[in-house]
Amino acid sequence: MLARTADSIFWVSRYMERADFLARIIQATQRLVGLPTEYNPGIGRPGTEWDSVLEASGAAEGFRDSGRPVDEANVVEYLAFAVENPSSVRNCIANARSNARSIRVALTAEMWESINGAWFELARFEQAKSMGGRLKLDERTRFLDFVQQASCDFDGRAYRTMLRNDAYWFSRLGVYIERADNTARILDVKYNVLLPETEVVGGSLDYFQWTAILRAVSALTAYHWVYRQSIKPWLVADLLILRPEMPRSLISCYDNIVYFLDAIGRAYGRQGSAQHHARAVYERLQKSSTGAVFQAGLHEFITGFVEDNSRLGEIISGQYLDLSGVPQGA
């Protein structure tokens, strides 16, 4: 496979996964903001819900540079539709389609139809927005549902229709590296930004915020199945970091990353620094415990993981992908 083809497949999957994450975190935050004030006394304070969304999405600096005040309408607009935000949902779908269009012969017809259809549906939402300035609440809800459905549709079509060869393996690497980054960021932001200093861990606000985070990663039902008790921060962290049966957990993502990197290594006849780095991260997760993570500091653990995960993306690019010319992602 040409390196440029592998690079585009890798980023198609990353962009579609990122769009899904943005839709989920916006939706979760809307639920938090909609809580009665007795359950969420932090509503309206700077540094709470919508600031946390910007931090989790990595868009805080760009948003500040735009000069817009931090409120629901501005943050949702910036994360969903802003052309100047390189990671907005709009740009994620546009970049996914651009990459997919350049390598259509490497994708199945069903995968292309999924991405192309998502692009045209997005255009309809943008047209509705241009007519009214911004989407109304019910239209916004339909938009967020559409983005999640588009991502799931693409992922399902890839799983059901692709040959299990290097194209499929690079596609899955994109999914799991992006998913691991997203899970880590949302967990870190909740622990360090979202809960006001005046609130106590385990209080009503803390409970509803953790519940919203679990909903954002489709893990609320899984939490109750696994632990069968009320929401506790250390158990949420355990589920999203160390439980291999949880599809969005960090260890599950790295289990898959190691598997697909090994498949590529066997197909190409050699291992490299990407395989070694991924195995090192996976082994650290396997040897970790929730108690040790909290004792050393959850923020420090997550920060180290995000750096390691980002480094793996760079190593994969250097080892397999052609990144000359215009960068395919950030």
Describe it:
This protein is mostly helical and 330 residues long. It has one domain (3-320). It is 74% helix and 0% strand. It is built from 15 helices and no strands. The chain starts with a helix and ends in a 10-residue tail after the last helix. Residues 39-47, 193-202 and 325-330 have low confidence and may be disordered.
The quaternary organization reads as single chain
First-last Cα distance: 23 Å
**Secondary structure tally, helices:** 15
Tally the structural domains.
Answer: 1
Mean pLDDT: 86
Write the layout of secondary structure elements.
Blueprint: H1 3-33, H2 49-57, H3 60-66, H4 72-80, H5 89-102, H6 109-132, H7 137-161, H8 166-194, H9 204-216, H10 220-227, H11 233-242, H12 250-268, H13 273-287, H14 290-296, H15 298-320
Helix pairs in contact: 1-2, 1-4, 1-5, 1-7, 1-8, 1-9, 2-8, 5-6, 6-7, 8-12, 8-15, 12-13, 13-15
Offer a concise description of the structure.
By secondary structure, this protein is an all-alpha fold.
Which features characterize this protein?
single chain; 330 residues; disordered C terminus
